[in-house]
Design brief:
82% helix, mainly alpha, 0% strand, single chain, 482 residues, 22 helices
């Protein structure tokens, strides 16, 4: 089992290196945006991108997930059929939707909650959505074929180009918001062109109707789930804009993005997890393996949560080359970061739990759980934001994710029962909570934060979190190093 988890770790590391590099490069844009754009302008950008995340669902309509399911098993059609059919389906839908968005750009500005003078941003938006949708199946194929290095390289190149173009258009040319969307569109086109040779190799012009019916049968039940899931992620931005204005959205978004390192962990895990569990579904120890993965995931997340909660504020309020990562007008939102980190952790838990649903083809049961999460978030955002401001939106986000996992767990256990290591997980959560509370109660110095973090790591050995087998492997590892 350890070797299987090691393989997951290897794939996660490859995806992780690219994801870490790409996200860190992307994170470098935050000081550029926040030091040049006003909080209100940055709020407009954040709001439009929240709509992009939502609309993407209708461009793919479940085809990406269906591709994973049927390309891995080849129950219907051959390899090229399983690539071409969902690719053609997504391309057709994308052409229709993007043309409609361009034709209706003026009236759609009110839907996107932007001034009509900014209608050209929707032209860029339609292009971004189109080319990103065309890349969905090719990227999924790279993941399924375990071509992690090529996948990683294209992602990194996309971000590098985005950054270069942002520096040119936003900083030098002073295009403002339009420069951000132009840069994203150009990078999306570039990624599609890089993937074009791979698309040509796997593509044929045959549209397999029987396969398409199976893809729809599997994928369409995921569309409402995806809608609900994306609402859970981004619905707080439009509500904040409605209740507090663009400036509040800008402050909220900038601080939300400080959760980047936890987003990296969950993103890396998600990229590697689906191909991993599909390839181990028939293993005799599959359920024990999936349980252990959950424990290790939470261990890593706990360490990252404490490190970021302890030291991030100190880093943000330190000047690098005469500038802050976030200027002082954004600092009022720093208090939301721990809640954002916890929300990302909860999202990763859901990723792990989803394995049973995917394996047993019970995707229709995801809808009520997803609705529970998104509905809870929407209701709580409206209730809490008027009283607590952007902190209310962060609390509502955490409540939404918690409700999703609480309702998902019994459903998954009904169809694919797994004995999770709750005693170990309980020890982990309790020790992390104690360490976090010490820092918050005593308003600790940097030195005390380091001592507390080190004490937390030692406590894991003291309370018996690690198994004997894990202790032996750690001794062997340290023995090799020494």
């Amino acid at each position: 089992m350890f070797e299987q988890i090691k393989r997951l770790g290897t794939d996660t590391a490859i995806y992780g290196i690219s994801t870490v590099l790409a996200r860190l490069l992307n994170f470098a844009l935050i000081p550029l945006y926040t030091n040049i754009l006003t909080t209100a302008e940055y709020g407009i950008v954040a709001n439009i991108y929240s709509y992009i995340a939502f609309i993407t669902i209708f461009y793919s309509y479940g085809m990406e997930s269906s591709y994973f399911r049927f390309a891995s098993s080849k129950e219907v059609g051959d390899e090229k059929d399983n690539f071409s059919t969902p690719f053609i389906a997504i391309t057709s839908a994308s052409i229709i939707l993007s043309v409609l968005m361009i034709a209706c750009a003026d009236p759609l500005t009110s839907v996107f909650q932007i001034d009509i003078s900014l209608y050209t941003l929707l032209y860029y938006t339609s292009g971004i959505l189109f080319f990103d949708a065309l890349a969905l199946v090719p990227y999924a194929a790279l993941r399924l074929q375990r071509k992690a290095m090529f996948f990683a390289s294209t992602k990194v190149l996309n971000i590098v180009l985005t950054i270069i173009l942002n520096i040119v258009t936003v900083y030098y040319l002073r295009w403002g918001i339009e420069g951000i969307f132009f840069s994203n569109l150009a990078a999306s086109v570039f990624s599609f062109l890089i993937l074009a040779p791979s698309i040509i190799r796997q593509f044929n012009f045959k549209f397999h109707s029987s396969l398409y019916k199976e893809l729809l049968k599997f994928g369409l039940p995921l569309v409402p789930v995806s809608i609900s899931g994306v609402l859970l992620q981004i619905v707080d931005r439009p509500i904040l804009k409605l209740l507090m204005g663009d400036s509040a959205v800008g402050i909220y978004q900038a601080n939300y993005r400080l959760g980047i390192f936890m987003a990296l962990i969950t993103g890396m895990f998600e990229y590697a997890w689906r191909p991993f569990f599909l390839s181990h579904t028939n293993d005799p120890n599959a359920k024990q393996l999936f349980s252990r993965v959950m424990t290790y995931y939470l261990l890593i997340c706990s360490a990252v949560f404490l490190a970021l909660s302890f030291f991030l504020e100190n880093i943000i309020q330190y000047k690098f080359f005469g500038r802050y990562i976030l200027p002082p007008p954004y600092w009022e939102g720093l208090s939301i970061v721990p809640l954002v980190l916890l929300s990302y952790i909860m999202s990763g838990i859901g990723t792990n739990l989803n394995a049973g649903i995917q394996i047993e083809k019970k995707t229709a049961y995801l809808l009520p759980t997803s609705l529970a999460g998104s509905a809870s978030k929407i209701i709580m955002t409206f209730l809490l934001v008027p009283q607590f401001g952007i902190m209310g939106a962060a609390i509502a986000t955490l409540i939404g994710y918690a409700m999703l996992e609480i309702t998902l767990y019994p459903i998954v256990q009904k169809f694919y029962h797994i004995e999770y290591e709750f005693v170990r997980i309980g020890k982990l959560i309790l020790s992390a909570a104690v360490a976090f509370s010490i820092i918050k109660i005593f308003d600790a110095s940097v030195a005390l934060k380091f001592i507390t973090f080190g004490g937390w790591m030692i406590s894991l050995f003291v309370i018996g979190f690690f198994t004997k087998g894990e202790m032996n492997r750690m001794r062997q590892a340290f023995g090799k190093i020494s």
